[in-house]
Amino acid sequence: MQKPSIAIVGAGKVGTALAVLLKSKGYPVVGIASRTIESARLAAVRVLTDVAEKPEDITRKAEVVFITTPDRVIAEVDRAIMLNDGYKPGTIVAHTSGSQPASILESASLAGAYTVSIHPLQSFADVQCAIHNIPGSYIALDGDPEAMPVAEMLVNDLEGKKFIIAAKDKPLYHAAACIASNYLVSLLYFCTGLYEKFGLTRQQALEALYPLIQGTLNNTAQIGPVKALTGPISRGDTPTVESHLKAFAECDIMENELYRKLGIYTVEVALEKGSINMDQAEELKRVLNNR
User: How far apart are alpha carbons 46 and 25 in whole angstroms?
Assistant: First the structure.
């Protein structure tokens, strides 16, 4: 299949990374548009393409249009492009939102385009991280059947691994991704902050904890999250959990509650692992619930 021409609307981390990666795979990038002309220029210089103040000026020339704006304005941008005759019938219009289905590109559909959601299941701290992280990632697709052959070709050329997701499942899919990525960062902030209480800086704490974190991820990758569970709850060691709670009495209420809630959830994982029995589980829950 011949590689179609690409227009990028939204020159943030994902849009810029897609432009760079697809250009490197031989896709013609016909232009980049963004809310600010400066960000469009910064992205365009990476792939030596045109900059557009009006998205329709480049979307008319493209066979595939990526709308890589923030989720809250995808539909608004899509509608503006349609109202300005920016779509040709048969154009494939994609967004990269994890939480929204392809069907939010309603205006593109009304113009005769085919719509698809192409979401890399990955974290993008900056453009270079995005360029580095997308290859090898899983990429979720949903949308019109007519768009799928091109979407799958794009995923293959991005060196991704595709899977299809139903539109109705997108919010739960995205929530799980947020827990795995965003909430993991919050947990690391939580635990490094605890180390600050006895004199380490957050950076020193992260350096000390990082081998443990990496080892835990390695274990989870090899044997799965249930079998990888270790620690006092996994052993049914109630006295150790009680000592933790005594220490948390000196912390703020949110930190105390977070430890307790995570502990209660972890009891269920330990039960599934089979490393504690029901009596041990009930005793741990009693202590964690402060009963």
Answer: 14
Contact status, residue 8 vs residue 19, Cβ threshold 8 Å: yes
Contact predicate 185/124, CB 8 Å: no
Best CATH choice for the domain 173-288 from the list 1.10.10, 1.10.1040, 2.60.120, 1.10.3470: 1.10.1040
CA distance 4 to 139: 19
Domain 6-165, architecture per CATH: 3-Layer(aba) Sandwich (3.40)
Question: What is the chain's mean pLDDT, rounded?
Answer: 96
- For residues 263-290, give the mean pLDDT: 97
Structure confidence by residue, pLDDT tens digits, 46-61 = 999 999 989 999 999 9
pLDDT (tens digit per residue) in 159-188:
999 999 999 999 999 999 999 999 999 999
- Give me the helix-helix angle, 37-47 and 13-24, nearest 10°: 20
Two tokens at 82? 């349609």
- Asked if 6-165 and 173-288 have one fold, the answer is no
Q: Are 173 and 166 in contact (CB under 8 A)?
A: no
Where do the structural domains in the chain lie, given as residue ranges? Answer: 6-165, 173-288
Burial tier of 166 (Cβ tally within 10 Å: 0-12, 13-18, 19+): exposed
Strand order in the sheet with 138-143: 51-52, 29-33, 6-9, 64-67, 92-95, 114-120, 138-143, 161-164
Residues contacting residue 64 through CB under 8 Å, at least 6 positions apart: 4, 5, 6, 7, 91, 92, 93, 94, 150, 154
138-143/6-9 β-pairing:
unpaired
pTM: 0.89
